[in-house]
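Running this now, will post back.
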Amino acid sequence: MSVHTTVVFADLYGSTSAFEALGNARATQAVTQVTTWIAKIVELHGGRVVKMLGDGVLALFADNSSAINAVVEMQRVHQKRMTQIPLANRMPIRIGVASGDVEIVAGDCYGDAVNIAARLSDLSGPHQIWANNAALDGTEEAEGVRFRILGPISIRGRAEPCTVYQVEWQEDVASDFLTMLSDHIPLFDSANTDALGGQIELTWLDAKKTFKSFELPIHIGRVHQAEFVVNDPRVSRTHARIDWRNGSVMLVDVSSYGCWVRFSGGGSDLLLRREECVLHGRGEIALGSSFADLSAPTVSFSVS
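Update: finished.
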């Protein structure tokens, strides 16, 4: 069955750190408490919870206004709740909202709007709400709520970028920038421009590829399925992942023997073993062996 609906994807940011800090049992309890509370907020605003996804909640609303009211209340109440719990237990919410046609099959939902809402949740930061322009049709900026345009953002798997807004919900935040952006005035001339703007260029021997922010995450590894292949026996089948997170390019080591990172301009080499770091400017990544090994497979990077 196909329906036109508003999709909300709410995700807990930092749940992985909570499991490390609290242990599995206590972290599971903390995550479940928050996601159960999110589900109640959804239902109080007339929405329907489709499913719980570990540390996330997927929900549908019949109209945009109900969805926006629900996610604003989520953020406002959750911000107050977090001040009353220990720091290690605090997990901010990040939310993606998208409106469009959705296929309902056996109680689950599929379609473009579902994919957009999930991706906007991934791209947004803690405490943020990102919504596509269709999700704001027929809605008004309530007291303390502003719709700030981020511009066209490309969503992986879609031929056309979608125009995205950030729903500003903090009642006590005043910003001249928000006033400048009132009335939904577009600030972007080209539909082909991606508002996220970031990209990373990787080079190994004669192989060179550029990945834009909306194409991330990508993997570096020995197998041909990796988006950037480094065919060397010291490189793991899947050695590292490059993510786009909250406006930054992140290198995440997932290998057996680690990555070494060297930034142009000096500084000590950084060793990552199942750890991550922000990539900026230019530099090199040695895979599976340190820079002391002059034959180590080394990938040059440039972030812009």
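Residues 24-44 form the longest helix (21 residues). More later if anyone needs it.
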